[in-house]
Design goal:
The protein is of the alpha/beta class. A three-stranded parallel β-sheet has the order 1-2-3, with helices on both faces. The protein is elongated, with a radius of gyration of 16 Å.
């Protein structure tokens, strides 16, 4: 982003999409370094959105929860059985891709997906409370 943004700003146009994670918004057991890295990228992206908008560069920050993939299946396999592990929705990659394209088209600053995670993003204190009490402990 830091290498591409100056050239885009000089041209007065461009778009940057940064994919972070809801693990960077809500504390999850077993995700200290991953969540910390994603939180840092999320904040850098949100600030870049503010700073680059006047130059015509649009920055979208994407905060996915679990999305069907090999990574998601591997992470889910590491969880001990629990209610929250069973209830965690898994998103569809095609749906999040369309949401990112819509955000680019409408110049929206962020995408949070699946919908349950968008609610968690809006009520971050409640989401933090829930995950601290109910998030499953990793098996490894």
């Amino acid at each position: 982003m830091s290498l591409a943004a100056p050239g885009m700003a000089a041209r007065g146009a461009g778009a940057i999409v940064n994919v972070t994670s809801m693990a960077g918004r809500v504390p999850l057991r077993g995700c200290a370094y991953y969540g910390g890295a994603k939180a840092g990228l999320g904040m850098a992206s949100e600030i870049a959105h503010l700073e680059l908008a006047p130059s015509g560069v649009h920055v979208v920050t994407v905060y996915p929860g679990p999305v069907a993939s090999a990574l998601e299946r591997g992470a889910r396999a590491q969880l001990r059985p629990s209610r929250i592990a069973r209830w965690m929705p898994t998103g569809d990659p095609a749906v999040i891709a369309r949401a990112v394209l819509r955000a680019l088209d409408k110049r929206e600053p962020r995408v949070v997906y699946p919908a349950l995670y968008a609610m968690a993003d809006r009520a971050i204190g409640v989401a933090t409370w829930v995950t601290r009490r109910l998030s499953p402990e990793p098996t490894a």
